[in-house]
Amino acid sequence: MNTLSYLNNANAAYIDSLYQNYQQDPESVDFGWQKFFEGFDFGRSEQTAAAQTVGAAPTDQSHFLKEINVLNMINGYRTRGHLFTKTNPVRERRKYVPGKELETFGLSDADLDTVFNAGVEVGLGPAKLSDIRDLLEQTYCQSIGAEYRYLRDPDKITWFEERMERSRNTPHFSLEEKKQLLKKLNEAVVFESFLGTKFLGQKRFSLEGAESLIPALDSVIEKGSKLGIEEFVIGMAHRGRLNVLVNILQKTYKTIFSEFEGKGFDEEEPFSGDVKYHLGYSTDVETSDGKKVHLSLCPNPSHLEAVDPVVEGLTRSKIDFKYGGDDKKIAPILIHGDASVAGQGIIYEVLQMSKLEGYRTGGTVHLVINNQIGFTTNYKDARSSTYCTDIAKTVLSPVFHVNGDDVEALTYAINLAMEYRQAFHKDVFIDILCYRRFGHNESDEPKFTQPLLYKAIESHPNPKEIYNQKLIAEGSIDAELAKQMEKDFRAMLQEKLNESKSEEKFSEVKPVFAGAWKGLRLATDKDFLSSPDTAVSTEEFETIAKKITALPQGKQFFKKIEKLFQDRQKMVNETKTFDWAMGELMAYGTLLNEGHVVRLSGEDVKRGTFSHRHAVLTLEDSEEEYVPLRNISDQQAAFHIYNSHLSEYGVLGFDYGYALANPNALTIWEAQFGDFANGAQIIIDQYIASAETKWQRGNGLVMLLPHGYEGQGPEHSSARIERFMELCADNNIQVANCTTPANFFHILRRQLVHEFRKPLVVFTPKSLLRNPQCISNITDFTEGKFHEVIDDNFVDAAQIKRVLFCTGKIYYDLLEKQQTDQRKDVAIVRVEQLYPTPVLQMQKIKTKYNQAESWVWVQEEPENMGAWPYLCRKLRHTELELEVVSRKESSSTATGYAKQHAAQQLYIVGKAFEAPAGKAVKKEVEETTADMANAGAD
Fold first, then answer.
1. What is the rounded CA–CA span in Å between residue 176 and residue 219?
2. Of 84, 118, 142, at which residue does a domain stop?
3. For position 613, which CATH number holds?
4. Which domain does 677 fall in, by range?
5. Is the pLDDT at 343 greater than 90, yes or no?
6. CA-CA-CA-CA torsion for 831, 835, 836, 837, nearest 10 degrees?
7. How many CB atoms lie within 10 A of CB 9?
8. Same domain membership, residue 326 and residue 183
9. Which portions of this protein are annotated as coiled-coil regions (predicted)?
10. Same domain, yes or no, for 763 and 894?
11. The predicted structure's pLDDT at residue 336
12. At 147, is the pLDDT very low, low, confident or very high (cuts 50, 70, 90)?
């Protein structure tokens, strides 16, 4: 039965129409079809002559249909051949219907000796069906399965087919190259075996079963170097990391052994460190032709794929700053697990960045160590898709499925992938079908859950043994070479282990402040007692302000934009007072003018979620954009601003990586609303808050998180201040909630004035963006610095009976009450920097107001949220014993009812001042809440 007859019928009609067009005008069809029809006409004339010679009638029509069937077969192999490969080293493959039998394509064994002109399509010219099939079998159904026919770009499809079919996807390495593959396999296999025998019971997350990764990586570095690559940035989880560190990045074996011996800890260092299979490393390696290639392996926590966006951001940063925008000189390599590449949503977020202007890196080589199991979960329970790599198809990335036991096939495939990346600047995936020889870690028992699989794995030879036997069988080496390799390498490992044991204390040189970080240092407690000077001259300030508020002549902007810029010009030329947007833009403008690159990315950052920024203007009658901050001077630094895709986890990780590579740029990620950072909590926890402590990696990333209670419901009120505060220790991050444009201006500039780099979290306002009281005089920008604490300048210290400490937007609610009631007995003190907490400055406030009878922390957030839980703990051993006024504790950040919000706000403000109306306000809150409950408030 011809199970693909519907394809034959459709193709027959289509090809017949092409043939008719060809007969009328050969140039009207593609070159490939021209050659096919030329061959077909030639073949038909030969058949006609032969038929006339023997007195038989020519069989043009039946042969023509079979030519179409052969074309169907060719395209069938190209499209579905990957389903029938020999890629799984330890299991039988699933069966797929229809198969690849000749009958599937309307052919039979009787046609094997028939010459078909369809052979032109695979580069054979007119050829026997048997030869055509042999070529297709070798190309598409052996150790390499190729998925590429969905690419939609004919040039890319042709590129692959020409290379794969010309070589039949069969590598042809020289003897020296084969010996190098064996050498790297030997290192990979013996290193794991050595660790397993010398450090029994210690976790190492062995590469065993996937050791072919090492020679493949070694080869792609060589290949990449020949194609112009000067640097690779690698990201991977823990499995195989130690092997990659020593056998690819050339971290010394002695260092690894010392870490196993527990000698890497130094009591004098202010770091807590991390387990050895999370650590990163960087080095220069030399290729066979003497070229230097820089390799970086990024540190990664146990969140398996969290490193992916960090690698991409770091790579993009180096493309921008180190390589002048040339993405052919640096390439990211991401090494995934099969369960994580299918199960972790961050993969999709990162892939969707790959072609975006603000995030593309020229193509990533994705290697999947597909050991067919996730911890204890079988692959059938780990995904719904056919392959773990099917997500690659969402961005039209080609995928190669390769038998991990065939080191030559894997090396060939990864080299082809590198060629594709360099040619087309797009991502490519290699799915390495292998196995995990032991359990999830070396003390785990995998037979508990996969007894049959691990029975097969127990007796399965390792890739080195398989390749050694192959080389011996083909006469490339003698049987003693591999034995001597192993003996020599094992002896060297033992020597390095002995050296590591003989040292009482091990200390590895860690060049924390090298390269782009040269000149910077670690922060000290003293650095946070007071901020450095970040003012700019009046002349510079006004010059830049005029530049960024001017619209070019002859371009049509929206009337609202013209009015906005007229108002901004009035600030510069008349009032000399500036709102929040101008304070922010002036921070960027002055830094750009001083030669510092500024990058701002996030959802809708060009305009700003609250239409306050308007850093990028779109003309009314076109899609043309005008960016005032790029028009300050000819000598200014670059201003990069990108609206991101709807991603927090991925984009925050990317921008963290971007800041990691260039500490001298101001790199900012903005959340649309502050609580959107919830989706990026892994990056916040594992990198932003703890990377310096764990991995000695500083970072100056700025996070802008809109925050403030304005009756907009739970999700649009709180940026979860408490979550950031509970991460604060060891001066790890800076957390601020500014109340003035000038203070925001200074804290952004302070990021690059400091001699160190710390992440900065700013809870930016929403309602204050247009609050007429939230303004700063020009002298606030041209004199002074960032103020960690802002005292009350309305009151007389001698009259003060009550001091209110607060942060952020609630200050203006308290201020209105103070001014309206002329409460000269209550001082309002703003804590602008929540961490590092300015305890000494707060204590000076207490000394100043020594007549005060009560000291209160006032916040909008519920009592179990906001800054209070942290401050309550932080200040408990100081003289600053504070009461708290807040919303009552709650499981939700804020109410969604406008009336309830207003009543709660009135109560907080009244309670803060202990006003006579306080009880009445409280009663109003209770009555309002009861009324809403009875009415089923909506």
1. 12
2. 142
3. 3.40.50.12470
4. 532-782
5. yes
6. 40
7. 13
8. yes
9. none
10. no
11. 97
12. very high
> Of the given ranges (50-54, 567-571, 637-641), which has the lowest mean pLDDT?
50-54
Domain CATH for 68:
1.10.287.1150
Residue with tokens 């660790």, as numbered in its chain: 195
Classify 759 as helix, strand or coil. Answer: coil
Check residue 39 and give its pLDDT: 65
Nearest to 673 by CA among 634, 629, 703, 641: 703
**92 contacts: CB under 8 Å, gap ≥ 6:** none
Q: Are residue 617 and residue 639 in the same domain, yes or no?
A: yes
Are both 296 and 388 inside the same structural domain?
Answer: yes
**How far is it, in rounded angstroms, from Cα 2 to Cα 11?**
14
Whether residue 149 is contained in a domain is answered as no
Cα–Cα distance list, 867 to 388, 719, 725 (Å): 43, 11, 7
Could you give the C-alpha distances from 678 to 215, 671, 681, 689, 715, in angstroms and in order? 40, 10, 5, 14, 10
Judge whether 305 and 239 are in contact, CB under 8 Å.
Answer: no
CATH number at residue 342: 3.40.50.970
Of the candidates 809, 802, 876, the residue with the CA atom closest to the CA atom of residue 837:
876
Closest CA to 414 of 402, 423, 426, 424: 402
User: Do residues 656 and 695 both lie within one domain?
Assistant: yes
Q: Is 17 part of any domain?
A: yes
Q: Are residues 367 and 460 in the same domain?
A: yes
**Contacts for 606 with CB less than 8 Å, ≥ 6 apart:** 613, 615, 616, 641, 642, 643
Q: CB under 8 Å to 641, separation ≥6 — which residues?
A: 599, 600, 601, 605, 606, 615, 616, 627, 629
Of 256-270, 287-301, 344-358, least confident by mean pLDDT is: 256-270
Domain shared by 822 and 755, yes or no: no
What span, in angstroms and rounded, lies between the C-alpha atoms of 801 and 807? Answer: 20
Shared domain check, 99 and 190: no
User: Could you give the CA distance from residue 412 to residue 434 in angstroms, rounded to a whole number?
Assistant: 17
Better pLDDT: 10 or 260: 260
- Dist. CA 758–CA 87, nearest whole Å: 47
Q: What is the pLDDT of residue 834?
A: 98
Where does the pLDDT of residue 17 fall: very low under 50, low under 70, confident under 90, or very high at 90 and above? confident
Place of tokens 């002109």: 117
> Is the CB of residue 658 less than 8 Å from the CB of residue 313?
yes
Q: Which has the minimum average pLDDT: 36-40, 254-258, 341-345, 429-433?
A: 36-40
Q: Judge whether residue 174 has pLDDT over 90.
A: yes
How do residues 836-860 score in pLDDT, each as one tens digit?
Answer: 999 999 999 999 999 999 999 999 9
Round to whole Å and give the CA distance between 906 and 159.
69
Nearest by Cα to 644 from 303, 316, 306: 316
Q: 10 Å Cβ neighbour count for 156?
A: 17
| pLDDT, mean of residues 486-512 | 85
> Helix 154-167 and helix 129-140: axis angle, to 10°?
100
Per DSSP, what are the bridge partners of residue 598? 639, 666
pLDDT value at position 633? 97
What three-state secondary structure class fits 402?
Answer: strand
Distance (Å) of CA 785 to CA 750, 782, 790, 816, 845: 8, 9, 12, 26, 19
Residue 168 placed within a domain: no
The model carries a pTM of: 0.92
Distance in angstroms (rounded) separating the CA atoms of residues 527 and 183:
52
Radius of gyration of the chain measured on its C-alpha atoms: 34
* pLDDT mean over 328-337: 98
Q: Structural domain tally of the chain?
A: 4
